[in-house]
């Protein structure tokens, strides 16, 4: 499979596209700037089949309804954050100068736990990785050696835990128990910044050393 990162919005949140040989595509965390998303889909002749959300903070969800409506595709989110899409206080859009208040439709599909998630032709493993937010999840594509970690793990850093529902100890446990157990060559595709690998973060991430 192929993938591409697209940084969107005032805080440069990463949206991702992952697609197969048939050009069927998943869109992960379409945070804003829907027209850029449409342009990429058109240029690459992609056929979106679903939107996956790692979590429901405002900078990851701003273009969800536009993308859902244009392509008539379902939106997946963890059940713990299903209400965040419709509540600008929970998704933090009401608390930031970077966004207008975001009130979306409810998600079409709920992620209720860990395990294999089948979305159209795509099969992936879901890890619950709370700490940055209560319903944060990571999507692991074993065959492609990719994990989309949202705002749990970054290159050289970890997600902030000072927002409502955040917990530093819970986040560190999520990273160590769920992400750092993946093969070291696994590519980590984060919600902000550049890609990294599990090995690189195990070796150099100052937030993880000594846990």
Defining key terms:
single chain; six-stranded mixed beta sheet; Metallo-beta-lactamase, Chain A; alpha/beta; metal ion binding; MBL fold metallo-hydrolase
Q: According to CATH, what is the class?
A: Alpha Beta
Radius of gyration: 16 Å
Number of helices: 5
Order of helices and strands: EEEHEHHEEEEEEEEHEEH
Coarse shape: globular
Largest sheet: 6 strands, mixed
The CATH homology group name: Ribonuclease Z/Hydroxyacylglutathione hydrolase-like
Q: What order do the strands of the largest sheet run in, or round the barrel if closed?
A: 1-2-3-4-5-6
Mean pLDDT: 97
Structural class: alpha/beta
Q: What is the count of β-strands?
A: 14
Share of residues in strands: 25-35%
Polypeptide structure, described:
With 211 residues, the chain is an alpha/beta fold. It has a single domain, classed as Ribonuclease Z/Hydroxyacylglutathione hydrolase-like (Metallo-beta-lactamase, Chain A), CATH 3.60.15.10. The protein has five helices and 14 strands. The strands form three sheets. It has a six-stranded mixed sheet with strand order 1-2-3-4-5-6, with helices on one face. A six-stranded mixed sheet has the order 7-8-9-10-13-14. It has a two-stranded antiparallel sheet with strand order 11-12. The protein is globular, with a radius of gyration of 16 Å. It holds the Pfam family Lactamase_B.
What is the topology?
Elements: E1 2-8, E2 13-19, E3 24-28, H1 34-43, E4 47-52, H2 58-61, H3 64-71, E5 75-78, E6 109-111, E7 115-119, E8 122-128, E9 137-141, E10 146-150, E11 153-154, E12 157-158, H4 168-179, E13 187-190, E14 196-197, H5 198-204
Parallel strand pairs: 3-4, 4-5, 5-6, 10-13
Antiparallel strand pairs: 1-2, 2-3, 7-8, 8-9, 9-10, 11-12, 13-14
């Amino acid at each position: 499979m192929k993938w591409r990162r697209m940084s969107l919005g005032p805080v440069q949140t990463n949206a991702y596209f992952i697609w197969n040989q048939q050009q069927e595509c998943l869109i992960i965390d379409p945070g804003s700037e829907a027209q850029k998303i449409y342009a990429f889909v058109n240029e690459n002749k992609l056929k979106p089949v679903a939107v996956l959300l790692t979590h429901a903070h405002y900078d990851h969800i701003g273009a969800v309804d536009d993308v859902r409506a244009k392509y008539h595709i379902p939106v997946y989110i963890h059940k713990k954050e299903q209400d965040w899409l419709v509540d600008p206080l929970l998704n933090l859009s009401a608390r930031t100068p970077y966004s207008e208040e975001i009130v979306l439709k409810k998600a079409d599909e709920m992620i209720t736990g860990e395990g294999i998630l089948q979305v159209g032709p795509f099969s992936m493993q879901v890890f619950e990785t709370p700490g940055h937010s209560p319903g944060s999840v990571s999507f692991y594509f074993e065959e492609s050696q990719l994990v989309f970690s949202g705002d749990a793990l970054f290159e050289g850093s970890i997600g902030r835990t000072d927002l409502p529902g955040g917990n530093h100890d819970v986040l560190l446990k999520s990273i160590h128990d769920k992400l750092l157990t993946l093969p070291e060559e696994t590519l980590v595709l984060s919600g902000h910044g550049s890609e990294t690998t599990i090995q690189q973060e195990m070796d150099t991430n100052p937030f993880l050393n000594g846990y």
